[in-house]
Amino acid sequence: MDDLSRFCCLNSACPEHGKRGGGNLTVTGRYGHDKSRRMLRCSACKARFSERKGTPLFDSRLPPGKVESALEHIAEGCGVRQTGRLCKVNRGTVGRLSKLAGEHARHLHDELVGLSPPDARGPVR
Ligand SMILES: [Zn+2]
Known about the structure:
The protein is an alpha+beta fold. It has 3 helices and 3 strands, in the order βββααα.
């Protein structure tokens, strides 16, 4: 049995949106080279999404403020050690966050690029 208590529906129009452990999610399939990623489906709104969709905050047990602070430091170019020291966050946690944030940023980038209408003014110079 899959433990889905950490996950919640990501459809903002869904009544179950953001509620974890509501029993509304089921695993509809697996993907990835070793089938390690799950596709989830919400029974309330029928939305499907990957368990990896979501923000870097999704899988963190840190208070959100700490996560954001650590991510800001990483974004500003601080190393993992430095970020950990400045934010008083465990170095291993910072490493994991920065990896998650990197993956998230890439997905977000792909989504934004995919969705952005072409700019009529042409490329920015
Ligand atoms: Zn839903």
